[in-house]
Amino acid sequence: MGDLFPKPPRQRPRILMHVIDAGYADRDKTIVKCKCKKCGYVSDWLVVDTITEAKRGLPCPKCHPS
Ligand SMILES: [Zn+2]
User: Of these four, 17, 36, 44, 56, which has the most CB atoms within 10 Å of its CB?
Assistant: First the structure.
């Protein structure tokens, strides 16, 4: 068997924040607050499409400096 997946040039595990609070703004916007388990960063209120989507996890800006 050959290497189906040669080593990626750089492995970047995504650190995801989890939702700690959720609400609505401007009547039709869903907003969530997220916290990173790894570094403890707590986000501001973020506008998301759906809470379900946010619960999949949002990348932590502290653990992923761009
Ligand atoms: Zn983090």
Answer: 17
Task: Please give the C-alpha separations between residue 8 and each of 13, 22, 63, in angstroms, as whole numbers.
Answer: 12, 36, 20
pLDDT in tens, 6-36: 766 666 678 999 999 999 999 889 999 999 9
Q: Token match 């189906």: residue?
A: 4
Q: What pTM was estimated for this model as a whole?
A: 0.73
In sequence order, the 6+-apart residues with CB closer than 8 A to the CB of 46 are 31, 32, 33, 34, 54, 58
Tell me, rounded to whole angstroms, the distance of Cα 57 from its chain centroid.
4
Residue 18 Cα, ligand 1 centroid: separation in angstroms?
10
